[in-house]
Design brief:
Number of strands: 13
Radius of gyration: 24 Å
Distance between the termini: 48 Å
Helix content: 40-55%
Shape: globular
């Protein structure tokens, strides 16, 4: 059970979320159109990123949504993991009531909800394959303790997703919170009076004053949104973290980093004008650094993410570099899978199967989470992806299909050699596997 100190600490947060249940998204909103959010909520994504294991059946899997609030994240988890058992917990009875209504409205009648604190998760008498702890860890007093409590209900091969507010990215909001604390606006649960004082304060400031310029944007209508002000300027118990803080908490809780959830957007190479022509001390230092050091470098140079969104798990056994391992295998042993969220995304299917369009397609327009432009020749794209929309494919069959679609080089009409086609397809696979669109299975 949680200590009285912890209960007292959480009381302010509970009051705020009871008064303003979060998020205030209409129950009727299906929340299944955002492919990026579904992709990040999928156990398939997390487990493949963890150990390159492809999960095809979710019926015996259990997923826990911690601090589920009004059920928006829970609903996304249900959409993204069809057939899995979904459980949501939160300390706010009012939020749980809304979450239950939301899931039932969309046909997920078997989802379970309980009013429960993280410290009491052992009462569920169950371990989970995926635990989602979004927008909660930065509100709790002891990160390492909370991670240990979550790890106790995580399957040995399970994955925990959590996120923390970035201290560097949100520094100006922490300045605002400190100011409003000194003004006495956060001694009790902020309500209409405190919201009004905050608005009056910013209205009285000159537009060029730093705090107003960096935290108070009238152009997007945010200042008229009570919840936006509460979740930024008057947020009870809000705390910012750096990546070294996170890694220290992992060490204390016997967990290990799997990767950042938006790993495609943490590439240190993209910070440089000419990443292949760096000074020697930079190139050698960064190339030889471990993943944690590379991430810390990125955070210091480009703190552009509100959330440090991560996957972690129980310690991983040492393993080979998969990016090199699969390339060493015989082509007949390589099977290519399309990620289910990618396969089921209607705009992408339409773009691939619309043979009337021959213009190149930018995959980042369909999947913004890949984090970069990716213009591909439509013939190559269709030859590669069309069969994957129906089922997984052996590498050899994808090469044969490409040779049928493009048997000759356009310049001189000389035949494309099978080995050249194979090299092209394997290069495409390697790139898009790293982006997360496809998954590779090596068969013995």
């Amino acid at each position: 059970m949680a200590s009285n100190v912890d209960r007292d600490y959480l009381d302010k947060t509970l009051q705020q979320f009871e008064s303003y249940p979060y998020p205030d998204i209409p129950i009727e909103d299906p929340l299944n159109k955002d492919v990026e959010q579904l992709y990040k909520s999928s156990l398939v994504t997390a487990r493949y990123r963890r150990d390159k294991k492809i999960i095809t059946d979710l019926k015996n899997r259990a997923i826990l949504d911690v601090a589920c609030g009004t059920g928006a994240t829970t609903l996304r988890l249900a959409w993204a993991n069809p057939g899995a058992k979904i459980v949501g917990v939160d300390i706010s009875p009012e939020s749980i009531k809304i979450a239950e209504q939301r899931l039932k409205h969309h046909g997920f009648d078997e989802a379970e909800f309980q009013v429960l604190a993280i410290a009491d998760l052992d009462q569920l008498n169950q371990k989970f394959d995926l635990i989602n702890a979004s927008d909660v860890l930065y509100l709790l007093p002891d990160l390492a303790l909370t991670l240990r409590q979550l790890a106790q209900v995580l399957q040995p091969d399970g994955v925990l997703r959590g996120n923390l507010h970035s201290y560097y990215q949100r520094f100006n909001y922490y300045r605002a919170q400190t100011l409003f604390q000194r003004m006495g606006l956060m001694e009790d649960n902020p309500e209409e009076t405190e919201l009004g004082i905050a608005r009056e304060f910013y209205a009285a400031l000159r537009d060029g004053v730093n705090l107003k310029a960096t935290t108070w944007s009238s152009g997007r209508g945010e200042i008229d949104n009570d919840q936006w002000i509460l979740m930024n300027h008057l947020f009870q118990n809000d705390k910012g973290y750096t990546l070294p803080d996170l890694f220290e908490a992992f060490e204390q809780s016997d967990l290990t980093l799997v990767d950042m959830v938006d790993w495609q957007k943490w590439d240190w190479r993209k910070l440089f004008k000419e990443p292949d022509n760096l000074p020697a001390y930079l190139a050698m230092g960064l190339e030889n650094a471990d993943r944690e050091e590379q991430l810390c470098f990125y955070e210091l140079v480009q703190p552009d993410k509100r959330l440090l969104d991560f996957w972690c798990s129980h310690p991983l056994p040492s393993k080979k570099d998969f990016s090199e391992y699969w390339l060493e295998q015989s082509p007949e042993n390589i099977v290519v899978h399309l990620h289910p969220c990618v396969k089921n995304f209607a705009p992408f299917r339409q773009a691939i199967l619309d043979q009337g369009k021959l213009m190149p397609l930018n995959l980042s327009h369909c999947f913004p989470f890949i984090g970069q432009d990716s213009w591909l020749d439509r013939t190559l794209l269709t030859a590669f992806y069309a069969p994957l929309l129906d089922s997984s494919q052996a590498l050899e069959s994808l090469v044969c299909r490409y040779l049928k679609a493009r048997p000759c080089y356009p310049g001189d009409l000389t035949p494309v050699k099978p080995k050249e086609a194979q090299d092209l397809i394997m290069s495409m696979i390697a790139e898009q596997e790293e982006w997360g669109l496809i998954m590779i299975e090596v068969q013995d």
